[in-house]
Structures are given as C-alpha cells and as structure tokens.
Amino acid sequence: MSIEAKLAELGIELPDAPAPAANYVPFVQVGDTVYVSGQISTAPDGSLITGKIGVDLDVADGAAAARTCAISLLAQAKAACGGDLSKLVRVVKLTGFVNSAPDFTNQPEVVNGASDFLVEVLGDAGRHARSAVSAGALPRNVAVEIEGIFQIR
User: Fold this and answer.
1) Which of 5, 32, 138, 144 allows an S-S link to 65, with CB 3.0 to 4.6 Å?
2) How far apart are CA 67 and CA 61, in angstroms?
C-alpha cells in the first residue's frame, strides 16, 4: 500500500509543509539524507498545542501533541521529495523535545505518539533511532517539538 493510500485509510490529509518561524530553512538535503527542522505541536486548525507535560497536560495529551509533530515532519519530507512520498525510503532518526515539569520522567511515552504514527503509516520504513529529551521550556510554550532525519531516493 502506498504512503498516500495509508494516510487516506487513516483519514489523514497532510497539511502544506509548515513555513519556518525564524531564520532557518525547513529542511536540508545532503545526498539522500534529509534533515528536517524541529516541528512544533500544532492542532489541525493551526493553533499551537501548548503547556507543560506533567502540569498542564498528561502523557496521553503529550503523545497526541507529538503525533501532530510527526504529521508535520511527514509533510516536510513530502516537500523534500518534490511532493512524491514514494521517494521516501525510511525514517532514520527522531529527536523529541518535551516541555516537561521538573519531576516528569515519561518523555519516551510522549514521543511514542510520533514514533507510533510513523510506524503505522510507513511500516518498517517508519522504524527509527530516537532520543526523547526533557525541556524546561519550548518556543511559544508548545508541548512538544520533534526534528527528524529521513532517507529519500
């Protein structure tokens, strides 16, 4: 099944690749590797998903926020592939930053929201190396930010 067909089956329409919010580019391609800048947790209506996990939001809320980051990452990867997701070979690595309360230690469960989504859509090509890191604060108080590395053809 194609990636586009799998997304349709799940009822997901990728948004346009989000524009950078500052002085950087959304992705850089070096050979067959694409480095995607951090994507922040954004609701379907474009509003930011904000708050500190462990204070304002729970693990399930954080995982849902991380899933939105993965959708944006996939939109950026699609842009890097010239709009053709069949050129996506695999997800290589994710680094997830979780806006965490000082005593919150379940960052991996939060970032699983992104990892689980990518595996659901891409199968084995979605399996990746990963880091899940606590952050005392994130830009605009977003709940989660995730950057990714992808291999394309």
Assistant:
1) 144
2) 10
